[in-house]
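Predict the assembly for these two chains.
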Amino acid sequence: MKSELIKQSINLFVEKGFSATSIQDIVDTIGVTKGSFYYHFKSKEALLMDIHSHYIDDLLKRQKTILDTEKSHKDKLIAIVELIIVDIEKQGAVGRVYFREIRHLKEENAAVIRQKRADFRNNIEVLLKEGIRANEFRRELQPKIITFAILGITNWSYQWFSVEGSLTVKELSAMYTDFILHGIQSPNASN
Amino acid sequence: MKSELIKQSINLFVEKGFSATSIQDIVDTIGVTKGSFYYHFKSKEALLMDIHSHYIDDLLKRQKTILDTEKSHKDKLIAIVELIIVDIEKQGAVGRVYFREIRHLKEENAAVIRQKRADFRNNIEVLLKEGIRANEFRRELQPKIITFAILGITNWSYQWFSVEGSLTVKELSAMYTDFILHGIQSPNASN
């Protein structure tokens, strides 16, 4: 029931937005009463926080698994880009809610999520810094700004990419890692 | 008065979102009555459409000016990226409303805006295609997908870039055109 409430609310938030979706709208989609909603969540905001927390905690965990391997900086970066892009297939809707509705969290909750987002971003920034030091990536790059560019490419894909089109998420991911690597690799880096 | 209504509503939409902002909220910020609002706009949605139309019409006009010059494909692309990024300084707030609130337009209005967005995007796609044909850009690129990557980088900047930071929009624009050109330029293109 809880997972069904989450699933249906994500669909409604994508379609109508968080503000315009009522708890009544959510329970109506699965034919239960408001009581069932309040059994699982204190409020609509609590549900939104649940969606945000699970999403970023899961991303951070999978990012850590990648960073803990013995791969090159380049291969770790490829794996992180793939992680975000391939996720569109299963997490496209939740990603759109995550990127769009954070301002509807209570300030104390938004602060928690913002910190976790910053952690995810900082991990990429550190990876770029280390890759520059290892001469894999170009010396003149500003890691922080390039991290935002990479996340711009991946996160924007959640806005436009349709899993019903002819391009697969794997193909999109390959094109974007190729583009990003051309953008950052040191001319004398081995490929 | 009309421009003041637009300006204040953009600030409120950025802060609270379109759905959570009432016409009363908007008129309260400048101390006028709802009557003044309705003198200029039929509804809150009509105001949102006005914001969307002006924003994209202006971008399309300036993009056309760039495309009508005799520059190389590379230099035209640089100019378009600069156009979007440097705009953050003056149009940051309206850009955020534009990217985020289109779903609150009536379907017939949203369709008009979506078509203009597609025109802006297609113009970049055609530029990339022609640049590939002219051997300025790499042959293996898919222009449509790379266009989305470029717009991901530029449009995402509206989410995170702060004009109060130490980096200027000009510097950001230079870093991103460098990154994008490394990503797409043909190895045998002259620089």
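The radius of gyration of chain B is 19 Å. Chain B is about 75% helix and 0% strand.
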